[in-house]
Amino acid sequence: MTPRHAAGLVTAVVVGVVAGCGGSDHTDAYNNAPKVIIDSDFNTMGDDGQLFAMTTQLMGQGKVNLLGLCVVTGNDWLLQEQADALKAVERMGVQDKVGVYAGANYPLQYDVASIRAQQAANPNGYFGAWMRPEPTQQSQLTAPPDGFATSTQLKSQAAADFMIDTIKRYPNQVTIIEVGPPTNLATAVQKAPEIVPLIKQIVYMGGAMNVPGNANAVGELNWWFDPVAVRTLLQTTIPQKVIPLDVTNTVPLTESVYNQIVNPPTGPTAVTQAYAIANAGAFANNTNIYDTLTIGYFLDPTYAKETQSAYLDIDTTPGEDQGHVRVYPDAPVAGASPQKITYVTRYDNDRFFSFYVNLLTSPVPVKFQ
Length: 369
Fold this sequence. Notes:
It is a single chain. By secondary structure, this protein is of the alpha/beta class. The protein is 30% helix and 15% strand. The chain has one domain (16-360): Ribonucleoside hydrolase-like (Inosine-uridine Nucleoside N-ribohydrolase, Chain A, Alpha-Beta Complex). The protein has a ten-stranded mixed β-sheet, sandwiched between helices. Helix 1 (47-60) links the parallel strand 2 (35-40) and strand 3 (65-71).
């Protein structure tokens, strides 16, 4: 989740999958690394696009086994996100290892009249795809700065079905990095509830626990966009951890970090050039770091300098309370999560930015061990 900037940040949602999970015989170092699926409202080089670039670099280093990158409407409409995701796969040079899986184009439940009323009541709110007309054909899409994908195609399997099959193939091994509205994962759980005890964990970027929202006054975009999907997952026994607005509000993108990425001593890459365009002026607009915090926390939980745990619920009612997270520190209440969920409240910013800059300025295409 990240607001657009005047510089023209193109947002989108992506789903990708490592071809190796379908039975490839390659022996890359990442095969034995921790397994993840990224479920994303993908964009070219906003936070979702950055997360994908970072994760594929980590994949090349043998530190992560990216089993899939799934796309869902959130930041933008699905058709735009698919186009951005397909190009990202080619940009990173992983089209032979990562596929793109399309997911949900709409939330599980939504009320357009209520959404429009919330937009009117919160003129500075960020409402993602609902702020733009929905494209229906290729000619209505905005090309990434380095053009559309030239050969990579969507996989035929739907994102939810891909998740079900992959989780069953690797029981108790797959972490879902959930950085968009969790419609795809909730759909998978509803369709195949037997996968619930087989999911290792979910790591979200989403929610506003004890701070104001960035969509309506109380809701963070990812969880506001499909609160029914969020509640469906909160009510399961899947281990879940959250990077909420409470911590992302404290991790600003500074001019120094921006300059380190767009002017690397090793020279520009396709990633640094796209980053420069997508994030131009971002540091002047009080832009924070969002989805990319998840991959640092997943790899090393000590990136979280402070955490809290509570039973969580979310308001699913259309209106000004939509997306409001209910936090119960001491005891569960009816409808809330059956176990306490950990959420991060303070991050190791300096250590993270070293990690962030290093991965975003690494050679492109990705070099595999």
